[in-house]
Predict the structure.
Amino acid sequence: MVAAHAAHSSSSAEWIACLDKRPLERSSEDVDIIFTRLKEVKAFEKFHPNLLHQICLCGYYENLEKGITLFRQGDIGTNWYAVLAGSLDVKVSETSSHQKYRQYMAGLLAPPYGVMETGSNNDRIPDKENVPSEKILRAGKILRNAILSRAPHMIRDRKYHLKTYRQCCVGTELVDWMLQQTPCAHSRTQAVGMWQVLVEDGVLNHVDQEHHFQDKYLFYRFLDDEHEDAPLPTEEEKKECDEELQDTMLLLSQMGPDAHMRMILRKPPGQRTVDDLEIIYEELLHIKALSHLSTTVKRELAGVLIFESHAKGGTVLFNQGEEGTSWYIILKGSVNVVIYGKGVVCTLHEGDDFGKLALVNDAPRAASIVLREDNCHFLRVDKEDFNRILRDVEANTVRLKEHDQDVLVLEKVPAGNRASNQGNSQPQQKYTVMSGTPEKILEHFLETIRLEPALNEATDSVLNDFVMMHCVFMPNIQLCPALVAHYHAQPSQGTEQEKMDYALNNKRRVIRLVLQWAAMYGDVLQEDDVAMAFLEEFYVSVSDDARMIAALKEQLPELEKIVKQISEDAKAPQKKHKVLLQQFNTGDERAQKRQPIRGSDEVLFKVYCMDHTYTTIRVPVAASVKEVISAVADKLGSGEGLIIVKMSSGGEKVVLKPNDVSVFTTLTINGRLFACPREQFDSLTPLPEQEGPTVGTVGTFELMSSKDLAYQMTIYDWELFNCVHELELIYHTFGRHNFKKTTANLDLFLRRFNEIQFWVVTEICLCPQPSKRVQLLKKFIKIAAHCKEYKNLNSFFAIVMGLSNVAVSRLALTWEKLPSKFKKFYAEFESLMDPSRNHRAYRLTIAKLDPPLIPFMPLLIKDMTFTHEGNKTFIDNLVNFEKMRMIANTARTVRYCRSQPFNPDAAQANKNHQDVRSYVRQLNVIDNQRTLSQMSHRLEPRRP
């Protein structure tokens, strides 16, 4: 927006001086001064405060001489002008419709200078700014009526600085009231977001229309109270309000986080608080276009990103050939990329970005960007901020070179200024590894280990990323010899005392790293001959040195304890090739504690032939497909040309690759393995048993308490979850065949999610009586509620997803009979499944829970895959350690969830629930979606 002015006057000098500054140089005080002046200009009087605030931020001022032509008819529009003083002529060609141009210009020129003053009412374009949606209007009315009904003192006339404000509320009181009225609002911040939804749509307004909603002593007025004769709610309206209040709260709780985020992003960067920046940063972590950026860059972006929205599809954001001034990230909606002569070349969607190339190369725009739909939202980074961040990153980057090649890239970042026990403060800057060769990364971590006891926790945290992720770029066969070499390293320079001090500290650092490495890997090391040999050799070396060097004795007991524990466990009789049942997770009802499945454990497994006969093989869990083929061939007497095929219950067939490992636990719930010559592949058919049950078990489990079922499900889920090693997440993300390791425990836990989901659908679709189906819906909603209460989010989401499966959700006649109380519960549960903003609703929920808890594992896997696929593992032949750090951070969620022991509910644990326990551990389900949909249509045929 350009503000055109003819001359300065003394009264306008101050605000014009503010407007005359470059947008980036304006302070919040400057913006307030401009806002106060512009809201008095008639051209802006209908504008929503948010829009006017943005104009104050980005508009600039021009003082023009007489006779200057601003633009000519036919030019591409690049600016919008508002005339503040003086006058101008609008000249239109004789062949054009003057009436049309009168309308177009009416909204751009301020009376009395423009054509709007002299035109008839019919010439004016109706004001469409800030028209609230019907939903939000209704929500505002419900909340106003609820306040007038339950706390009428909150809406009243108030005096402040000798001025009376009619019928208004106080921001802090509104937040307090919201928290009292609904469990949907878990914090004051969340309640602020819920009120901001109303403020954005103009249903609730600051009395001077100068503020977003704030949890402060500020006055806000409902839209209905803008009129002096605003009626009080009738008894009927009060009753409606009571019925609809919780649904309204649920709606606002779903919309609140986005509204709160937009509110923060609309603030000038200089006015964002530390909490604001943290909220923006958390949002940036889940944006696809930014996944490859370092943590430092994301935090820098949080401080400069600007929110931009456009209401109408077809709006041109910028044109091909224009100078690049901004980089855009799509928050909501989609855009078309248009090139002259080619038309639309591609479409970009939520999470994509555009416009960066022109900034990096300082080149004209290579394409035009046109909004593909209405109501698109963007994050914008302006050129100056973009270039500054790039400069800062390069300035804070330290590159270590050998033979003119980068071998280690470090980034300088701020560090906490925490004092040690001796009162010395740590440096305010520290260096983090961005990339490097495996050897140099290891060397850097060893050199930077702090040995002071007070800094143990900080050191362990820094080392944790390397210890968890080294298997990706420096497997044990490389790491162990390198650690031995570092332990025995001797300096070549310095005095004898300096050499002794260096050697001692070096040994202590290596011991420290080995202790953390052994603690992290634990029993996993038992399957690695290289690691076991290293541990024993290393322990002998440290023991020998400790006799001569007293300082090493303090670390020796801890090392001895870990080495002996791992060695003794490895030699224990029960660890010798335990045979597992085919089903892994069913039929094994022994009372002792469930043990994690190891890759060396052996499994008896049926492999089927084309005629549905089978042979039973005995192989290690982590066996490759090549080994499975060999075992099958030995049993069949011939293995020439054999392939191994995964067959689902629906008949989908997948030929497994020879290097695939641990395939037994990757089968679908009712999946089976087949072996056949390649020419028989097309003739393979599923087994009859793969179809699943034909009769439901409602007669059995309807007699069981919903709480008992949820409790026993949680006990079993916790057993499965507790067996999952963090490293299995790494193997799963990067491909287990690359490590030749099993992810059996993770596979079974993920399969459990699908099993519960299909259990819900199966039982409902196998229930022919409508009344029983309604009872089943109620039962499953109750079980889900209890799972949530037990913080078993994995089963909670599995049940809710089962209820939202199309085979269940389409049963309209059944859902119609469900009591409204249960419908509300289900709607609340569904809101937690909302995938928008990368499942923000779920992330906000889990952030409020303390361990122990069972997370929604499929989303955790998705997050790690998102980071893996969005970032290269190697950059210029160097390990991308920033990627390792991000993946390790996600994997540590598992550790956090299990950081407190799961203590069973005493009241539940004391009951004898053997029948419930057996039932939840041996669910029999149909996992063929096509079959379930057909059954659903037989229950309730599609209406004509």
Q: What stands out?
A: The chain has six domains: 2-123, 134-256, 274-391, 439-561, 579-691, 698-939. Residues 6-11, 94-129, 417-426 have pLDDT under 50 and may be disordered. Residues 546 and 552 are 5 Å apart (CA to CA). The longest helix spans residues 235-266.
